[in-house]
Amino acid sequence: MRLQNKVALVTASTRGIGLACVQRLAKEGATVYMGARNIERAQEIANELNEAGHQVKVVYNDATVKESYKSMIEEVVKQEGRIDVLVNNFGTSNPRKDLDIKATEYEEFISTVDINLASVFLTSQAVIPHMAANGGGSIINISSIGGICPDISQISYGTSKAAINYLTKLIASQCARDNIRCNAVLPGMTATDAVNNNLTDAFKEFFLKHTPIKRMGTPEEIAGTVLYFASDDSAYTTGQIVDVSGGFGMPTPVYGDMIEMKNRR
């Protein structure tokens, strides 16, 4: 019960990594608010978790409506009087349009960067005064390994995540005196619906070829690192950009090819 008596808010929380974070934080004793556009679906999940003895509630948030970030924060504070943990989980791109520098339309590029950055900037900006007034808090940004390892496609998504990594360090630096910590978690290839529905088996196999822990991560494994940053276990940790990617990008760039050559001997 490392989060007992704490209030947490998770955006984009009805599936994948966001849902795993809701479940993990709730199991550790937090009252967790699910920021969601699909209120009915979120409420179904909340009801199931509440029947299991947890405290989960729902608040409206639509990433395409920027005003809803501030109203989401205000609603949680109105109900609970505080927010101790904010997990900025929302992120999106269109792999069919988010290509390389030559093929990506500027409008696609800027709209993806805008919505992904807004989801962190506006929500953090709205919550920081409340955290400061209550003696501090923890902001956790879900970024991506793509924010530190340049790809041959998804230029918009990768740029937005790289910016979120830097924004994480800025928030950490500027808000530390208010006892507000800010860290980022960078998932690698994670077994979510988005990955399974948008990536081909050939691409998955190629990606995992260069991942020392040769499998996809699980949303629960990402949530475990989020829990660390949410709890007092990380009370002296801020501004950290932590990849949870099975080691992708860590060894030599020809790691996968070298392993194959070794196995053929």
From TrEMBL:
<keyword id="KW-0560">Oxidoreductase</keyword>
<dbReference type="InterPro" id="IPR050259">
    <property type="entry name" value="SDR"/>
</dbReference>
<dbReference type="InterPro" id="IPR002347">
    <property type="entry name" value="SDR_fam"/>
</dbReference>
<comment type="similarity">
    <text>Belongs to the short-chain dehydrogenases/reductases (SDR) family.</text>
</comment>
<keyword id="KW-0753">Steroid metabolism</keyword>
<keyword id="KW-0443">Lipid metabolism</keyword>
<dbReference type="InterPro" id="IPR036291">
    <property type="entry name" value="NAD(P)-bd_dom_sf"/>
</dbReference>
<protein>
    <submittedName>
        <fullName>SDR family oxidoreductase</fullName>
    </submittedName>
</protein>
<dbReference type="InterPro" id="IPR020904">
    <property type="entry name" value="Sc_DH/Rdtase_CS"/>
</dbReference>
<dbReference type="GO" id="GO:0008206">
    <property type="term" value="P:bile acid metabolic process"/>
</dbReference>
<dbReference type="Pfam" id="PF13561">
    <property type="entry name" value="adh_short_C2"/>
</dbReference>
<dbReference type="GO" id="GO:0016491">
    <property type="term" value="F:oxidoreductase activity"/>
</dbReference>
